[in-house]
Amino acid sequence: MPQVPAAGGVLWRRIDGELRIALVHRPKYDDWSLPKGKLDPGEPAVVGGVREVWEETGFRAVPGRTLGESRYRVLSDGREAEKTVRWWAMRATEGEFVAGAEVDQLRWVSLQSALARVSAGYDCAPLQAFAAAPPETTQVLLVRHASAGDRDSWAGPDDERPLDPTGKEQADALVPLLAAYAPRRVLSAPLRRCLDTVRPLADQLGIPLTPAREAREDENDWGAGPLVQLLTELGGAGQHAAVCSQGGAIPAAVEALTGESDVPARKGSLWVLSFAEGRLVDAAYTRDPLH
């Protein structure tokens, strides 16, 4: 069966201190739903979700924790297909709704009203997942450095081993994915391949790139150690940040934080760690954006 990948968000903000959720009305279906839509070819899901939320509501949003996915049957090009919508909590930052042909109304309602009003049952699950943890979260983006060739084929000091052509492509492709989360700090193990993986991000955001020895694998005895402390301190302090580390440290750090085993950490990949009230509430893995 053909697949239709899509993404959307539980868009939220506080109005006079009260939590409010955005629902959109689609005149074609005469229903109230969460903003969502199909991904463009090759578009990372979270980037597409942010774009679709903006297109349907007029509000820019910063994604937070993941809220699962919905699957249902649709007609695509006249054929039955399975649509999979991946969901994120999304904090509204700025914007203004403008009615259009696809969406003609936007309402900010309480969470309870949103659960009662959405027309499609598959929009209830992300709302219920959203209700399970505090809305305000801090995202710490844990990145493994991009491809840097083979250690045995590099004649110089290993700390100076550069990104290879694939690694440079991965570093550039990571920028929109990481920037979607609006990190305010960019840190990296002080190795050339790590620094160069997140340097394009720091340059685009116009913020310093800060070396962090805690992110080196040899500082963590090829395990967790100082990296876990760095991640939890950033999350606990509410500092949205990107941290580039190595394959000898990331799996152990994520395992220590989540209790999960067999933690993936491909080159150029990303773990989004979401903290609320000083504790980890979500950990989501994304392969490098070239795949």
Key words describing this protein structure:
six-stranded mixed beta sheet; Rossmann fold; Nucleoside Triphosphate Pyrophosphohydrolase; single chain; 35% strand; 291 residues; alpha/beta
Would you spell out the secondary-structure blueprint of this structure?
Blueprint: E1 3-15, E2 18-26, E3 31-33, E4 36-38, H1 45-57, E5 59-76, E6 79-95, E7 105-109, H2 111-117, H3 124-131, E8 138-144, H4 165-179, E9 185-188, H5 192-205, E10 209-211, H6 226-236, E11 241-245, H7 250-258, E12 270-276, E13 279-286
Helix pairs in contact: 4-5
Share of residues in helices: 25-40%
Distance between the termini: 22 Å
CATH architecture of the largest domain: 3-Layer(aba) Sandwich
Report the CATH C-level class of the largest domain. Answer: Alpha Beta
The tally of strands reads 13
Query: What is the name of the CATH superfamily of the largest domain?
Result: Phosphoglycerate mutase-like
The total number of structural domains is 2
Provide the gyration radius in Å: 20 Å
Structural class: alpha/beta
Low-confidence stretches: none
Proportion of residues in extended strands: 35-45%
- Total DSSP helices: 7
The biggest sheet amounts to:
7 strands, mixed
Order of helices and strands: EEEEHEEEHHEHEHEHEHEE
Rounded mean pLDDT score: 95
